[in-house]
Amino acid sequence: MKKFLVPYKCWPSRDWAGSRLLVVLHSDNGSPMKASSFLVLLEKLGVSSSFSRPRVSNDNPYSESLFRTCKYRPDYPYKGFGTLQDARKWMSQFVYWYNEKHRHSGLQFVTPRQRHEGSALVILEKRRKVYVEARSRHPERWARGTRNWALSDKVALNPIKEDHRRIPEGGGWFLKRMRSNPAAAAYGRSEAKSLDECARLSKADQS
């Protein structure tokens, strides 16, 4: 099965000399992608491995959320697309639905178009009034206040917590966690992929 999946996830890239074409498989640091059997298969196929740096895959939640929304559509072709034209047609329809019809929970259940055009403010104000009126009619049904329909200034998946932000001394939030968590320190040493990271780890051990 892997022999069919690997080429699908790869893209061509020129090496430093630009003399030959390389095939690179980029992935996160999940254990299936780093398993020895899988790496041996990549080597046999002439595919180079590329991994995201530990703890900086901030874009992954957004892409994975989009993939899930795409794959869970009722009309998603689980048996695959017949042709490239079929795939492009389906994706074009999906993008239209995603931006024009789909009410996103992260946007207070308005569409991206409504959010960008500014009409979301009017829609959410109407919803707020409906909730306030409903609560005034039947207060016994409401244990708390009405729902907050205000739009957030920032939308984030897995936002960085305050104690994970970079700090001026010590090299960053990762080292801050390592000092208080021996398990994280051991994991960080095994995952270090550059001399710069190794130097910071050594400095943390001495402090």
Automatic annotation (TrEMBL):
Organism: Heliobacterium mobile
Gene Ontology molecular function terms on file: nucleic acid binding
Full protein name: Transposase
Domain annotation Integrase catalytic: ranges: 1-120
Top-rank taxon, per record: Bacteria
GO biological process terms held by the UniProt record: DNA integration
Secretion signal, residue range per the UniProt entry: none
Pfam families for the chain: rve_3 (PF13683)
